[in-house]
Model the fold of this input.
Amino acid sequence: MAEPETTVSSERVFEGRRLSVRVDRVRLADGTEAVREVAEHPNAVVIVAVDDDQNLLLVRQYRFAVGRELLELPAGLIEDGDAPVATAQRELREETGFSAGELTELGHFYAAPGGMTECLYAFLGTRLTPDPLDADDDERIELVRMGFREAVEMARAGGFHDAKTIASLLLAERRVLG
Done:
């Protein structure tokens, strides 16, 4: 088992709207010191929304950080004090115009544990009904429907370029397809 590292000092070097960065000096188990750069990012949810015909709701949007359009599952940041399940319902409504009659947590995972704090909570949303909520002002999203089985095959073949989408589809596969 890996030994925990002990923080010797910590300095915040950047504070943004959604992201802050700190540089920590840590003591390793053998007594030596090392530097760790940590991006602090809010936790988030990702929703695998599947309708009664086993169609998956996806969103296509431009992602500035990678300079391209991506096809992804609906997702969003957890606001202070909100429960992940409440965030999942809100984000599903904002990004797809549907609410889920049932939201089941599939699990959680870290986005990039080598240097980022963000934990993503994956949910399976079923019993979908139209229930739109205004999207965020800075989001330009296109709703895309795809068969769930086709989406899983696409994930396995490298057709998605978004880690949370790939991981969440695989977490949901057994529950949706049996």
Summary: The CA atoms of residues 154 and 163 lie 13 Å apart. The chain has a mean pLDDT of 96. Strands lie at 6-15, 20-27, 33-40, 44-50, 55-63, 68-72, 75-77, 98-110, 119-130, 142-147.
